[in-house]
Specification:
heterodimer; A: about 270 residues; 13-stranded mixed sheet; about 10% helix; elongated; B: about 300 residues; alpha+beta; Alpha-Beta Plaits; 15-stranded mixed sheet; 5 helices; about 35% strand
């Protein structure tokens, strides 16, 4: 099973839903067959130049823009490499495989994700790993790594999984969080952990920390070693440096059950 | 007891007999701590009173020390093995031993040490010590619990692998005319066996001096002294001992696989025959029940080069 490269012939004028591009389906076919597949009232070949590549079970998308939504939606296996920006809902409900975005991502990156790995070289928009309105939970597994900053409300109602951000988060990261971990190397924006019930936020600093987070003191916890080693194994050279032996623990949000935590490494 | 003396290696007679062992269930834990010393203390405590599944509920022992680079949390560790009649029989032993001996040990953490599809709920007891303050973290396919304790947190993995292909009761009987020399020889054999992975010798120092037979003249005693191997009874009972035998020591071997037990039998016998003659060892035998009870038979002749 070889891989495929799909080069967008021209930048889309409106939103373009690419959620149907799944490596296991497409890479089982020849480039010519894929080009003939129906898509958006025409065929894949109308929008993309399709060619074969050597990497097995891999789909490379080239020429994408921030108008290209839903890339990697419900991805279960295989790899999607995006050589450009992506729009909203990339990796939504992803269950396995790998989505590598060389540019930046829009809103709802990895929303409802259950497994697999998403890497973004640039930045990502609001609601990374979050739920969308009407859903019960956000991200429930897997790993997201963003090389730049991320927007507001990352991990909203997140339940499990790990988000690693090299930059900083926007406001209210971990809002209504029910579990999982957000590790922001650049720190957290205002009001991190608003109405957080459980889960872990890790970073060197947090702007405008909520009064409903209680200072528990500085501690060395074995769990810090586990997450450092886990992230290093998952991300390899993209992983942040191992956490320090001691962190300052703040428990919150005490406006709810207060079983979440904000761990400051600085 | 069956067998007759037909072989001699380095002056030590080897009975033409076999060790009869039984299918068991087994599991393995990795216990870590701030130092090797405290990992060892936790491991020794939790494997204590774990010599025989009959009287102790489980047969337990230290498999090997695990270097910090190979443990889940990067701290020094110890791998311990626990054997029981079934996974269901091991579970309460895990709960009690981990809860009373590892959870309580300063700086300790406890992880799965055996990859297997069949799992036991390792944290089912100890995590509730957290009284609602315990937290779960899942990294990849592994789930851990953080239980608040007075020196910080006790970290314990949610489940541990268990195998039903384990074997308990591999054994070597070392006979001779010098009790101290026998003990030194048995120590050397245990040391050789302890270098192998996936096996333990669960008795004190790996050595048993009170081999038993099934049954007793007394009601309620399921086992009693193996009078055929008691040197002081030689003139008064149907003895299996030679005229110059004044002591018998046994090494019992449990392993996660039959191959592990077999390998241990081999290195144990090799160690005995290497130095035994100079220590007063005259003979090596093995315990069995005529071959009708245990599924695994380890013939001594198979281990003689």
């Amino acid at each position: 099973m070889s891989g495929l490269r799909l080069r967008l012939k021209s930048a889309p004028v409106g939103r373009l839903d690419l959620s149907c591009l799944q490596p296991p389906v497409l890479t089982a076919e020849t480039a010519a067959n894929v080009a003939r597949m129906p898509f958006e009232g025409g065929s894949v070949g109308d929008l993309f130049e399709v060619s074969a590549i050597g990497d097995a079970d891999t789909l490379v998308l080239t020429g994408t823009t921030a108008a290209c939504d839903g890339i990697g939606d419900h991805l279960k296996s295989g790899t999607i490499v995006v050589e450009g920006d992506v729009g909203s809902y990339a990796g939504r409900f992803m269950k396995g495989g790998r989505l590598d975005i060389k540019g930046s991502a829009g809103n709802y990156l990895g929303s409802g994700m259950k497994g697999g790995l998403i890497t973004v070289a640039g930045s990502a928009g609001n609601f990374v790993g979050a739920m969308t309105p009407g859903e019960k939970f956000g991200m429930a597994g897997g790993v997201i790594r963003v090389g730049g900053d991320i927007g507001e409300r990352a991990g909203d109602r997140m339940r499990r999984g790990t988000i690693v951000v090299k930059g900083k988060t926007g406001a209210m990261a971990g809002s209504r969080m029910a579990g999982g971990t957000i590790w922001a190397e650049g720190g957290f924006g205002p009001a991190a952990g608003t109405l957080m019930r459980r889960g872990t936020l890790i970073g060197p600093k947090a702007e405008q920390m909520l009064d409903t987070f209680a200072d528990c003191g500085e501690h060395d916890m074995v769990f810090l070693r586990l997450i450092s080693r886990f992230v290093a194994a998952e991300l390899g050279p993209l992983a942040p440096a191992a956490l320090p032996a001691r962190v300052r623990r703040y428990a919150g949000d005490l406006a709810t059950i207060g079983k979440g935590e904000l761990l400051l490494t600085g | 007891m069956t067998g007759s003396q037909k072989m001699k290696v380095n002056g030590v007679a080897i009975d033409d007999t076999f060790a009869e062992a039984f299918g068991m269930s087994g599991t393995a834990l990795i216990i870590t701590a701030d130092s090797q010393k405290w990992a060892n203390i936790a491991a020794q405590t939790m494997t204590g009173f774990g010599t025989s599944v009959i009287g102790c509920g489980a047969e337990c022992g230290i498999d090997y020390e695990v270097p910090a680079s190979e443990t889940p949390d990067g701290r020094p560790g110890v791998r311990v093995l626990i054997f029981g009649f079934s996974p269901d029989a091991i579970l309460p032993q895990l709960k009690n031993r981990v809860g009373q001996c590892v959870l309580t040990s300063p700086g300790s953490a406890c992880y799965n040490g055996l990859e297997s599809a069949q799992r036991l709920a390792l944290s089912a007891g100890p995590r509730f010590f957290g009284d609602g303050w315990q937290q779960s973290k899942r990294f990849g396919g592994r789930r851990f619990w953080r239980v608040p304790v007075m020196d910080g947190e006790f970290t314990i993995e949610d489940t541990v692998g268990v195998t039903t292909d384990a074997v308990g009761g591999g054994n070597l009987l070392i006979l001779g005319r010098d009790r101290v020399g026998l003990l030194e020889t048995a120590e050397a054999a245990v040391a050789a066996i302890n270098k192998l992975p996936d096996v333990i010798t669960p008795f004190p120092g790996g050595i048993v001096r009170s081999g038993s037979k099934v049954g007793s003249k007394y009601k309620g005693a399921v086992a009693s002294t193996n009078n055929a191997f008691c040197p002081t009874l030689r003139g008064t009972t149907k003895s299996e001992l030679d005229a110059d035998t004044i002591a018998v020591l046994e090494i019992v071997i449990d392993g996660l696989t039959s191959k592990a037990v077999s390998d241990a039998m081999r290195v144990g016998l090799q160690a005995v025959t290497d130095i035994g003659a100079s220590k007063g060892v005259t003979r090596v035998s093995a315990g069995n029940y005529g071959g009708k009870l245990g599924q695994h038979h380890y013939h001594l002749k198979d281990y003689v080069a």
